Amino acid sequence: MIMYLLVMSGFFAFISARKHTLNMLLSLEFIMLGLVVGLANMFINFEINSYFILYFLTFAACEGALGLSIVVAMIRTHGSDFFYSFNILLC
User: Fold this and answer.
1) Does the domain made of 2-78 have the CATH classification 1.10.287.3510?
2) Fewest beta carbons within 10 Å, which of 19, 22, 34, 90?
């Protein structure tokens, strides 16, 4: 039940706060946290080895670090982290 609440509130935050890139990344990390809680609950209930959770957490941490580096690069080049001011077609 908590997993569904975490994931749905993360989706709601992702949809409603699309102005800043950092807010979008935080809501994506919140969704990942809900998925980790759900996977841990599933592995505990079915008594399965939980090595997959470690891989999932590793990829989530790499995704967070990569997103933060993209935000820092956006702020250095464009001066802000507004999502709509970033145009991929401009070099």
Assistant:
1) yes
2) 90
